[in-house]
Amino acid sequence: MRGVSVFERTVGELPATSPLPAVADAEFDTMAKLTRRVLDAPMAMVSLVNRDCQVVPGAAGVPADLDRARTNSLDYSFCQYVVRTAEPFVVEDAGTLDFLAENLSVTELGIAAYAGMPLVDARGDAFGSLCVLDHRPRHWSDTELETLDDLAAACSAQFQLREANTRAAVVADRDRIARELHSGVVTQLFELTMGLGSMRAQMQGPAQRELDRAIGSVDAAIARIRDLVYDVDL
Q1: What is the secondary structure of 150-186 as a DSSP string?
Q2: pLDDT for 76-123, tens place per residue?
Q3: Domain range for residue 206?
Q4: Nearest CA among 39, 16, 224 for reference residue 130
Q5: Which segment of the chain is annotated as a signal peptide (predicted)?
Q6: Are residues 20 and 88 in the same domain?
Q7: Residue 131 burial (CB count, 10 A)
Q8: Could you tell me if residue 177 is inside a domain?
Q9: The CATH number of the domain where 99 resides is what?
Q10: CA pair distance 15, 9, nearest whole angstrom
């Protein structure tokens, strides 16, 4: 397995936002530590890339300023190439690649080798990378890359589980609202409709027509409430 060298997607096609904020996340810190240990690399990151920056919820062995800030600019990012292509990106010696010559991870942090695998959501869209980095040129074996790919799949599954839990919470909240509405407001509106119907039987002419319009307005209100409850965008 080897990374691609042609980047067809533009920066404008990077995700507009990242699924997590720029703070340390215990679950993904653990994943980064495991990846660093298994791959015997100085650094490992769970990196999320958007149009404006790189967010690092999981990190192990990274510089102290990045460990505190958990974000940096795309000028430092190797992971952006993973997201742009939704493919592995593997660098054995950054000094031999002209397009990385001005990358700040190379010029400021001294990164020489990198291997990153895409993190994908339930739709298969890449939004980040699980990666390892080294200060020395390094040959990444097929076994190492396959292991990193397996770990990235597990990391993607963690993100997807969180997304599924969020969606489930939205559904549960929608159902709670529905129950409250049906036991409260909708019930009161039905009672109002029944009362107006009883009054209608005692009226004739213009008054009856005005009451019909009032009953129609209440019925429309009930329909709008139902639409509001059941058309929640998931």
Answers
A1: HHHHHHHHHHHHHHHHHHHHHHHHHHHHHHHHHHTHH
A2: 999 999 999 999 999 999 999 999 999 999 999 999 999 999 999 988
A3: 184-230
A4: 39
A5: none
A6: yes
A7: 27
A8: no
A9: 3.30.450.40
A10: 11
